[in-house]
């Protein structure tokens, strides 16, 4: 059975500069503070980020309540300092592109655009999980997380 590969786009406003938001996705110590929805954590020792085209972008999300583990292995396919990060996940072939744009007044717009999204990652629960992760990123960038 072939899955319907769709697209998903989420746009959010973040506190701080585009450069700061961009760095949060490439610095493992920041990454673990927001990656994944509430009720999930990412052990620092599972994160490998090689900030270059062709570099690894790997991590494992762990469900707090059950200990279930969800590894992600991806490759950075596009990288523009302070502006854009694109990765392709090895298992699903899904491409996730994050675009960062300074709005002024210490605010940034981030757009997540995913393509080749399998059905299991494109429903209401997936969108809620992504938004929860963005909520955690807002808290982190605001110095509250």
UniProtKB/TrEMBL annotation:
<dbReference type="InterPro" id="IPR023393">
    <property type="entry name" value="START-like_dom_sf"/>
</dbReference>
<feature type="domain" description="Activator of Hsp90 ATPase homologue 1/2-like C-terminal">
    <location>
        <begin position="18"/>
        <end position="141"/>
    </location>
</feature>
<protein>
    <submittedName>
        <fullName>SRPBCC domain-containing protein</fullName>
    </submittedName>
</protein>
<comment type="similarity">
    <text>Belongs to the AHA1 family.</text>
</comment>
<dbReference type="InterPro" id="IPR013538">
    <property type="entry name" value="ASHA1/2-like_C"/>
</dbReference>
<dbReference type="Pfam" id="PF08327">
    <property type="entry name" value="AHSA1"/>
</dbReference>
């Amino acid at each position: 059975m072939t899955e319907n590969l769709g697209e998903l786009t989420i746009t959010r406003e973040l506190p701080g500069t585009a450069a700061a938001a961009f760095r949060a996705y490439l610095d493992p110590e920041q990454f673990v503070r927001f990656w994944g929805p509430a009720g999930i954590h990412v052990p620092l020792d599972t994160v490998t980020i090689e900030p270059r085209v062709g570099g690894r972008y790997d991590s494992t999300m762990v469900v707090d309540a059950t200990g279930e583990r969800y590894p992600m292995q991806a490759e950075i396919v596009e990288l523009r300092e302070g502006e854009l990060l694109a990765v392709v996940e090895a298992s699903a072939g899904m491409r996730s592109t994050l675009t960062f744009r300074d709005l002024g007044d210490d605010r940034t717009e981030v757009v997540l655009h995913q393509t080749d999204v399998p059905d299991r990652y494109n429903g209401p629960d997936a969108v809620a999980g992504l938004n929860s992760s963005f909520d955690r990123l807002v808290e982190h960038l605001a110095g509250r997380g």
